[in-house]
Amino acid sequence: MNRLQGKTALITGGNSGIGLATAERFAAEGARVIVTARRQSVLDAAVRRIGHGAIGIRGDVADIEHHAALADELRERFGALDIYVANAGVNTITPSAQVTPEEFDAQFNVNARGVFFGVQHVAPIIRDGGSMVLISSLAATRALDGHAVYAGSKAAIRAFARHWALEFKARRIRVNVLSPGPVDTSILEKMGIPEADRPGFVKAMAGMIPAGRFGEADELALAALYLASDESRFVNGIELLVDGGMSLN
Ligand SMILES: NC(=O)c1ccc[n+]([C@@H]2O[C@H](COP(=O)([O-])OP(=O)(O)OC[C@H]3O[C@@H](n4cnc5c(N)ncnc54)[C@H](OP(=O)(O)O)[C@@H]3O)[C@@H](O)[C@H]2O)c1
C-alpha cells in the first residue's frame, strides 16, 4: 500500500524502538522520512535500515536550539512537512522519595519540554491538513510503581494535545496522542532495571496485560500510521491506547 505516498514525515527518536519501527512503516508506505536522535552511529544504522532515501539528523529534543535549527533546515530542504511524530522519550523508575531534581528535570526536559518546543518550532512548517502524533504512555493514566515523574511528564503531552488540536484547527492540522503500554524495546535497558531483574520485571508486567505479553514496536507503528494517514482524517484530539488491554486492570 502507499498510504503515505508523497508525504514528508519527521520522527523524533527514530533510531530505535517504536520510532524506528514507525519510520520503517512510513517509508514502506511511500513517505519521505526524516529521523532524529542523539547517538550518531545508531542513527546512521537506522537510516540504512529504513532505506527509501531516509535522512538522519542528530539532535537533542531537550535543546530548544535544536528544534529551531531543524525547522530551518527542513524548510530549506523540503519546504514543508506533512507529519510530525514526537516520539523521543526517556524513562527512569524511582520511588518519589528518592527522585532528585536532576532526575525530575531530565525526564521533563525530554518528555514534556521537548515535545512542547518541538511542536512550537515544527508547526509553522507543517502543511495545512497535516497530522501530528505525540507519543505519551499508559503510565500517564495508570499508576505504576516508581513512575510518578515519568507519568507526570507524559500526562503533560495529553494536556498539550487538547490545546493544540484546537489551536491548529484553522489549518486543519490534527493532533492526536498515541499511548503505548509496555513494549519490548531498548527503553527497558535504559530504565535502570538491573539485567538480572529484567526477566522478573517483564514477567510481572506481562501478568498485568490482558494480552499476556508485551507489545511489539511494529504494533505501535501501525497505530502511528493510522493516526498519521488520511484514514484517520476525522480523528482529532484523541488519546489512542495501544496497550494489550492493560488499562482495564
Ligand atoms: N517501550 C515502552 O514500553 C513504552 C511504553 C510507553 C511509552 N513509551 C514511549 O515511547 C517512546 C519511544 O520509546 P521506545 O520504547 O521506543 O524507547 P527507545 O528504544 O529507548 O527509543 C527512544 C528514542 O528516543 C531517542 N531519544 C531519547 N532521548 C532523546 C533526546 N533527548 N533527544 C533526541 N532523541 C532522544 C533515542 O535515541 P538517542 O538515545 O540516540 O537519542 C531513541 O531513538 C518514548 O517516548 C517512550 O516514553 C514506551
How would you characterize this protein structure?
The chain is of the alpha/beta class and about 250 residues long. It has one domain (about 10-185, about 215-240): NAD(P)-binding Rossmann-like Domain (Rossmann fold, 3-Layer(aba) Sandwich). About 45% of the residues lie in helices and about 15% in strands. The protein has 8 helices and 7 strands. The chain has a 7-stranded parallel β-sheet, with helices on both faces. Helix 3 (about 65-80) runs parallel beside helix 4 and helix 4 packs parallel to helix 5 (about 150-165). The termini are far apart. The chain binds NADP nicotinamide-adenine-dinucleotide phosphate (NAP).
- Please state the average pLDDT score: 96
Lateral arrangement of strands in the main beta sheet? 3-2-1-4-5-6-7
Distance between the termini: 36 Å
According to DSSP, the number of beta strands is: 7
Strand content: 15-25%
How many structural domains in the coordinates?
1
Helix/strand structural class: alpha/beta
Tally of alpha and pi helices: 8
